[in-house]
Amino acid sequence: MTSLGRRAFLVNTGTCVAGASAVALGFVPPRVQAQETRQYKLLRARETRNNCTYCSVGCGILMYSLGDGAKNAKPSIFHIEGDPDHPVSRGSLCPKGAGLVDFIHSESRLQYPSYRAPGSQEWTRISWEEATDRIARLLKDDRDKNFIQTNEKGERVNRWISTGMLASSAASNETGLLDFKFARAMGIVALDCQARLCHGPTVAALGSSLGRGAMTNSWVDIKNANVVLIMGGNPAEAHPVGFKWVVEAKIRNAAHVMVVDPRFNRSAAVADFYAPIRAGSDAAFLLGVVNYLLSHDKIQHEYVAAYTNAALIVRDDFQFHDGLFTGYDAKTRSYDMSSWEYERDGQGYAKKDPTLQNPRCVLNLLREHASRYTPELVSQITGTPEKDFLHVCETLASTSVPDRTATILFALGWTHHTNGSQIIRTAAIIQMLLGNIGMPGGGMNALRGHSNIQGFTDLGLLSTRLPGYMNLPKDSQQTLDTYLQGVTPKADEQGEVNYWHNTPKFFVSLMKTLWGDHATAANSWGYDWLPKWDRSYDMLAYFELMGQGKVNGYIAQGFNPLAAMPDKNQMRAALSKLKFLITIDPLDTETANFWQNEGVYNDVNPKEIQTEVFRLPSTCFAEENGSIVNSARWVQWHFAGARPPGEAWGDGRILGTIFTKLRALYAKEGGACPEPVLNMQWNYRDPEEPLAEEVAREANGYALADIQDASGAVVLRKGELLPDFSVMKDDGTTSSYCWIFAGSWTQAGNQMARRDNTDTGLGNTPGWAWAWPANRRLLYNRASLDPQGRPWDPRRQIIEWNGQRWAGADVADYPPTSPPGSGVGPFIMQSEGVARLFSRKALVDGPFPEHYEPTESPIAGAALGKTVRHNPVARMFPDDVARMGGPEQFPYVATTYSVTELFRHWTKHSRLNAIMQPEQFVEIGDRLAERLGIAAGDRVRVSSKRGYIEAKAVVTKRLKRLNVLGQQLDQVGIPCHWGFKGAARKGFLANTLTPAMGDANSQTPEFKAFLVNVEKI
Ligand code: SF4
Questions:
Q1: Pair 207, 842: CB distance under 8 Å
Q2: CA distances from 434 to 294, 391, 424, 438, 508 (A)
Q3: Does 16 score more than 60 pLDDT?
Q4: CB 721 near ligand 1, within 6 Å
Q5: What was the pLDDT predicted at 863?
Q6: pLDDT tens digits, one per residue of 201-247
Q7: Do 220 and 88 touch, CB atoms closer than 8 A?
Q8: Ligand 1 site-directed mutation target among 90, 94, 103, most atoms within 8 Å of CB
Q9: The ligand 1 atom nearest the CA atom of 241
């Protein structure tokens, strides 16, 4: 049968439109009609379930691949669409997710390993064998030469600081676990991940305030709010599908949505109310809200009294004066925190005054502390008109009643500041005062950025961390006992859960995972083999050392630090001092090519750069099995839908192969402290290529002997997977890499792969995937009921007491059999059992938040009524201080941000996204543009003390001129998406402009507020 095209068909039948209509009406023989119908494109395609690799909404996707399993058919993904069953995304994808196919097939996908020799101007293709042999040799030689077994005091520290490693933020948890074992076995302390650059301050702030440093509620739960405050984030652009639950709150719940942001952004376009603010002044705004709530008596009294530390009495010697808390030492730029504590009774418990009359109780101290932030002062500092500020105060205050809630959505707009942790703490205090923590439709919703940065934070991939939010031991903690005593808190109130008292069980179970049978009680479970830290080796600190020539080797896995770190020119100079750099990435990144001359975009002389570089191609999300954690702590399992392109390997295979070779070298040659390298448990079916499934089970943990309960009954047989963390032991009979992941893969199977989207109430879907801890979806949910167990709002009841235990739509975040009225506090991770308005010694810059100016600020200190202008304990390296500018030369406040169509520096490699946003631009307010003679589309140069970028000007009314302390102030918006690699037009890395100063607690850089100048080119 010859084929009949549409045109030939029309000619042959002698018809045109009328004939076509006849076809539609069914008057044409079936054989001809069948030939005209386009074949259903998904016919015979294989469907695979996965998740979007970009943001932390974690949208479900269905990937369709050709290749139906026939022997020589190689699957290739040709179509991706949203998973309609996914409870959050319900079939939606944003422009980033819609371009995923182009990411998978990007021309920038690396196909084979390549090598750049010192001084060379080109890449050379090499084999995996050559690459991994050479890397193992380089690592071993550097480690053997520079390993530090004991410090100058003679303490055993077992660390290696001349080589460091950056872990990804989109790789699976299973890769993360292998990263940790790989790095810590060798003694690497400079292990860090993207969390350092995004939500580090969230973890510090929410952990110290509430007990856990994570988003409290979930994406779908946003629909239960009466009020939504979006500040320090822009979810309509950065988390578009998650944002639909804000719209749902408006539609279903008549929620009032408010946006406070330097730009009238796309979230503001959908909101009911928008207020402008000067970038970097958020803490002043929020402290003003605290003052408003306390001075207008708009707090949820019963909640505050029962569920916060409002009534606890603070030591007499704790004071605050002129921007400083008690104990400041200007020489060391640090605090002696001893006075930041409660008064104690004879038993060591915190004293309290339930009547709240004592002037030294926390609530009264907070009232006094915040009283300086009057609406007038707030307006002067922030530039927000006073009436707009008061509108936000009044609207939030409307939720101080038990049956209304506000949710707060924030992201990097709050974290990227030298006082980011304190900004977030202030917001948490507002929610505590309003009784909005633990409530459906309430909470502190930290919108994490990358698809698995929550997971990598959970897994302890930060320089001084261990999995499950434990700390890596420091030099002074020389014995296991000293360490455990130092990190295991005692209850501050009688009868409180103080769940961290179980730390020894979590820690010993981790050690059994790391060292296996080598970990015994006699050797303190291999405690000595863990590297100890003497100082932070966070990314900023480590690049400082690199710039000083003190670092030899660096591994960047799924990370593009040249584009992501602040002050790109300084970072490039630091990378140029390395002896070797290893990049592991699916894409060809700027970091791998930092030595290439790209003209104005990267002006270097390759001949002068003596770094040898290995560029190793890895798989992407679509080519691997594994799990990732979304912002709401849902651990979701995904499946490979295709094989890797060319010779690319999975991350596990790359790490497994290098580590196996390294171990073989140590076994054969010996070397510096070989024990941790050789004793690290790496007992996978194929050590060179661990399977995601076996690693995931290892993360959950096993019984290593029969486990008995208190009555002596065996509850778990040797070899069985742990059902949850409650069965963990500190006697070496259980193993678990990450205690909060216990329950994710049990004897009942892989809980992360579950797909029951039944709504058990208020949008809760506990049968979909699995959430840490213990599959709880709403953290602190016991606080949604009063102490007697009655819901504050019957329409928002999510758990209930059934007479014997807690039940309901969610898993209670509470001891399951502690009845109503037992007096046990609902914040079970806190040693007080309650949320902290006063955070004691948990943060280095103060137990109450305070507004400090960004490091580069247009404001003079005296205008704030205090002499201390900047965060007094923010770390300042002299090199960075020398690269700070002032308002005389750089008069405008700049802030970086993301746009809907692009995700950081990844989507510029995806053709669809590059088409949508092909060219770099900056946003300039119309009044500033007029003054500088800039029209829309003109090219402009934006410069800071650290360098310049050039881009097209978008002249807009979205950035208003503000009146700040009587001064007319303009702000400039800098999207950070372009670079010199990828499918979009070449552009400047926006981080050329940004300063390398970080949040005092987490060292997360101040990307959101710095000074620039703007000129028309
Ligand atoms: S980028 Fe985020 S919102 Fe967009 S599709 Fe991916 S996960 Fe969903």
A1: yes
A2: 10, 16, 16, 11, 40
A3: no
A4: no
A5: 63
A6: 999 999 999 999 999 999 999 999 999 999 999 999 999 999 999 99
A7: yes
A8: 94
A9: 3
Q: Give pLDDT tens digits for 118-147.
A: 999 999 999 999 999 999 999 999 999 999
Q: Identify which of 402, 485, 469, 396 has the alpha carbon closest to the alpha carbon of residue 439.
A: 402
pLDDT at position 654 = 98
Helix (H, G, I), strand (E, B) or coil at 160: strand
Q: In whole angstroms, what is the distance from residue 156 CA to residue 676 CA? A: 13
> Are the C-beta atoms of residues 514 and 526 closer than 8 Å to each other?
yes
61 lines ligand 1 (CB under 6 A): no
Per-residue pLDDT band for 13 (boundaries 50, 70, 90) equals very low
Contact by Cβ (8 Å): 899, 917: yes
Ligand 1 centre to CA of 238 (Å) is 8
Pocket lining: 94 vs ligand 1, CB cutoff 6 Å? yes
Of the candidates 572, 557, 576, which has an alpha carbon nearest to the alpha carbon of residue 118? 576
Q: Against a cut of 0.90, is the pTM above it?
A: yes
pLDDT (mean) for 733-760: 98
Domains of the chain with bracketed CATH: 46-105 (2.20.25.90), 878-1016 (2.40.40.20)
Q: How far is the CA of 623 from the centre of ligand 1 (A)?
A: 18
Closest alpha carbon to 100 in 913, 982, 649? 913
Report the C-alpha gap between 968 and 823 in whole angstroms. Answer: 54
Token pair, residue 536, equals: 């932070």
User: SS3 breakdown of the chain: % helix, strand, coil, rounded to 5?
Assistant: 35, 20, 50
pLDDT grade, residue 68 (50/70/90)?
Answer: low
Cβ of 54 less than 6 Å from ligand 1: yes
How many whole angstroms from 176 Cα to the centroid of ligand 1?
22
3-state secondary structure of 325: strand
For the stretch 850-872, pLDDT in tens is 999 999 999 876 567 788 999 99
